[in-house]
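Hi all, long-time lurker, first post. I run a small reading group and we've been trying to get comfortable going from sequence to structure in the token notation. Rather than ask abstract questions, I figured I'd post a concrete chain and ask someone more experienced to write out its structure so we can walk through it together at our next meeting. Sequence below, copied exactly:
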Amino acid sequence: MAQKRPSTWPNVRNASEIGSWLLDMDGVLVREEHPIEGANRFLDILRESETPFLVLTNNSMYTRRDLSARLNFGGLNVPEDHIWTSALATAGFLAAQRPGGSAFVIGEVGLTTALHEVGYTQSENDPDYVVIGETRNYSFERITKAVRLIEGGTRFIATNPDPTGPSLDGSLPATGALTALISRATGKDPYFVGKPNPLMIRSALRELSAHSESTAMVGDRMDTDMVAGLEAGLHTVLVLSGVSSEDDAQRFPYRPSRIVSSVDVLANELVAHYAAS
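-- Answer (accepted) --
Happy to help. Here is the structure in token form:
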């Protein structure tokens, strides 16, 4: 019989030793738009202790304000300035690469607003970039335009590589599926800014003015959250309340710093710490 591996690894830290937190949204704080056990308590403790944190999502459809309202409707209190999206990370990346540039965009208000706020204009005429994000409203005509621009040499950027996204009725095709269509037509792959690219993690660290050595990345996916946190030099915590199981974690060539059942475990550790101090 195979020996059961431990659910913790060397150099594990108690939650009280973490100075700032990056938290994935789906599978960590919410599941099918309902709060996961302990999520509200964990967030309340972080706010009350003035511990810096950001809630991260690869979904680029919504603005920070939209997401805050959606979470609040579902019972989670997350102020908009505590939310970081792949759209914001993408806009910041483009502004650093080519300030005041232009883009042909297939995406929703979360992406277009983020680009506007960094001084980007949207254009179909010789844009600097084709930028693809999450959307439910793309058309054959706009996909064709994107293909022709990329064939003509326009740089190809996408907010995130996720092929599907969750919904109450099942999986939906997401950004990665749309970019795969365009890549197949053009023979060119996009540069993905969102997770698992550690660029998104580092942009969130800058937003928090936090250091990687004292920050934890909490996520439910080994193939995005954990590898992104690892490559950015963060303490990584895999929660089993979402996609990846403990058995899944054993199959990857890298491993998280720690595996816990949910953020409720982290909340309990913080409560014990503050009660003892």
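A couple of things your group might point at:
Residues 78 and 177 are 29 Å apart (CA to CA).
The chain is about 40% helix and 20% strand.
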